[in-house]
Amino acid sequence: MYTQAMDTAARDGHASVSALAPTAREQRFEARIAAGEYVEPKDWMPDHYRRTLVRQISQHAHSEIVGMLPEGNWITRAPTLKRKAILLAKVQDEGGHGLYLYAAAETLGTSRDEMIEALHDGHAKYSSIFNYPTLTWADVGVIGWLVDGAAIMNQIPLCRCSYGPYARAMIRVCREESFHQRQGFDALYAMMTQGTRAQRDMVQDAVNRWWWPSLMMFGPPDGESTHSEQSMRWGIKRIGNDELRQKFIDAAVELAKVLGVDLPDPQLKWSPERGHHDHGPIDWDEFWRVVGGDGPCNRDRLAARVRAREEGAWVREAAMAHARKRAARDTAAQALAA
Ligand code: FAQ
Q: Whose Cα sits closest to atom 46 in ligand 1?
């Protein structure tokens, strides 16, 4: 549906842009970004801007889809019907987020098949966090509280991203993620306030395992971030990796107190000078190992996605055949009516 051809189409008020020399076009583009205007699919944009968006949006979409797997693992084993219904809805929401995001990336001229192929052959990344296992029911609550919490912190600024389709997709995604975060917190709060000693220990153990990987979700430190500087200049990213991570830590400390859990960092303490919490060192070697494909679940996650694609081929073929049949029927009906 969306192709690179859109790049050459004129848009009201921008019809003369493609006739300008490249530098003038680029200056015009930069000026629009500086003025806070949204860039839309038919607008001229530098190739590097387009490629950066396809990379980030498609990796974000892959994260939502691969992110269905760790929690999906607990749908059949949720402790009550209410928790099962909530979890089922949450996992379906994540699938929906993946679809909005693939659609947003398609407006840049890359097909969904190309993006999925890049994931399956290992060229495209997805968030490191989904390469960790969900060992107990408490992990599901902690994913809601910490993982969705980190996702929201990172995604709120993306609602003001300079690329219109991505920014608009993020508004709905963030609303749903905020429900996800609260359901996770609620599940943990129930276990911590009404549960047995064993259940409280289970929550603490899950927090211990997910805390550090959640901090890694924000990406490498700014000094090691390949794309931040350019992405900030283009208004794709609005806030740097380190600042978002710090905001997340400050918020999580307060919520951990309400829950009655300890965050597994002996160096975590309030710094009145900085007005933030200081924290211990993050294991960036572990981060790069997981990003590089050697985390606890990388192979299982990719194998599950490849299997789903293969096993779902007949559904896609049937849907396409049905669409063709309907289109042929509509065309025949229109010809009769004419
Ligand atoms: N994992 O230069 P930067 C969710 C890569 S959605 C893996 O700083 P950038 C919902 C990065 O791609 C979670 N790789 O990169 C949910 C780059 O490699 P490349 C996903 C990572 O793009 C909840 C290299 O490192 N959210 O959780 C990671 O400027 C619960 C250098 O890094 C998004 O995708 C990582 N954590 O900043 C679902 C949000 N971090 O591509 C189910 C949108 C970095 O050159 C259950 N994305 N890398 O090969 C972003 O905001 C940005 O892409 C960052 C990274 C901030 C993630």
A: 67
User: What's the CA-to-centroid distance between 211 and ligand 1, angstroms?
Assistant: 17
How far apart are the C-alpha atoms of 241 and 239, rounded to whole Å? 7
Question: For the whole prediction, is pTM greater than 0.90?
Answer: yes
Q: How far is the C-alpha of 133 from the C-alpha of 210, rounded, in Å? A: 10
Return all residues near 276 (Cβ < 8 A) that are at least 6 apart.
246, 249, 250, 270
Whose C-alpha lies nearest to ligand 1, atom 44?
219
- Cβ(190)–Cβ(61) below 8 Å: no
CB contact set of 177 (below 8 Å; sequence gap of 6+): 148, 151, 152, 155
For residue 239, give every residue at least 6 positions away whose Cβ sits within 8 Å of its Cβ, in sequence order, or none.
157
pLDDT tens string 130-173: 999 999 999 999 999 999 999 999 999 999 999 999 999 999 99
Residue to mutate, 226, 242, 301, ligand 1, most ligand atoms under 8 Å from C-beta: 226
CA distance 189 to 197: 13
